[in-house]
Amino acid sequence: MKRVGLILAILVFFAAFLAVPMEVKGEAATTEWKSLIYDEAGLLNQTEYNELNTMANQYGAERETDIIIFTSSNPDNMDVMKMTQDFYDDHGPGYDRSHGNAVILTMDMRNREIYLAGFYKAERYLDDDRLDKIRDEISPYLTSGNYELAFQKYILSAHRYLGIRPGVNPDSIFYSIAFQLVVSLVLAGIIVGKMVSNSGGRVTVNRQTYEDAGNSGILEHRDQYLHTTTTKRKIEKSSSSSGSSGGGTTSGGHSHSGSRGSF
To answer: Using CA atoms, how far apart are residues 177 and 114, in angstroms rounded to an integer?
Structure first.
């Protein structure tokens, strides 16, 4: 039995390992972080800025994509999409080269609009639909003024979607860690069960060993219908921030995916 217990412990550990999404984890190419947070609107204090910039560098390196936040008071009252495009052309962000893989969250504090854009790898992995999902997730926090939490969720969601191949529904249950853990534990339980059943030798006793076939039978059978209860429940419709999908091409000729909305 000690041997079976040891095997069970190993299998449970193995099941937990399998439950972790199979994503390629890269390491940052350098210990010197880039400046990926451009808080021109002054929404963050220094501590929040440092933590978010470190977070963006770490998760961006794992996906080989710059994850950028750009906030502006928009003194020239430019369109938020145009602001994002000009930012990309002027700053030339990219993980491994100028004007390379990047996703940008732009906040226009003057008109209270946001725009998300994905360039190159991010354009493929963070298409209009996935950017809409990110925008819908963070908009309530932006509306309430919880900018730090909104930016954290943006970085984490961008990182997650960049690890799921294009064309796949990122909200599928198969990408749920809880679902993967349950499946792994069930498989481990089946394996252990088979090992335990095979370790005790063959069982030769069955129901016929003690059954008196001549005197066995059903004595009484009765079905009784009691009642049926029907309840009605109103299905609430989900709400999301107003917005629209659509990318474009910058003045410098760089195409991108996109999602815009108000907060």
So the answer is: 30
Instruction: State what percent of residues in the chain have pLDDT above 90.
Output: 57
Identify the band that residue 190 occupies on the pLDDT scale cut at 50, 70 and 90. Answer: confident
Token pair of 219, please? 């004595």
Measure the CA–CA gap between 228 and 141, rounded to whole angstroms.
45
Q: How many CA atoms does the CB half-sphere of 61 hold within 13 Å? A: 14
Q: Do 70 and 108 contact (CB within 8 A), yes or no?
A: no
Q: Identity (one letter) of the amino acid at 43? A: L
DSSP SS3 for 171: coil
User: Residue 150: beta bridge partners?
Assistant: none
Exposure string of 120-130, with b = 16+ CB inside 10 Å and e = fewer, is bbbbebbbbeb
- Given a contact cutoff of 8 angstroms between Cβ atoms, the answer to whether 88 and 104 are in contact is yes
- Residue with the larger pLDDT of the pair 150 and 234: 150
- Helical packing angle, 46-63 and 147-162, nearest 10°: 10
The answer to whether residue 24 scores a pLDDT higher than 70 is no
Give the model's pLDDT for residue 244.
74
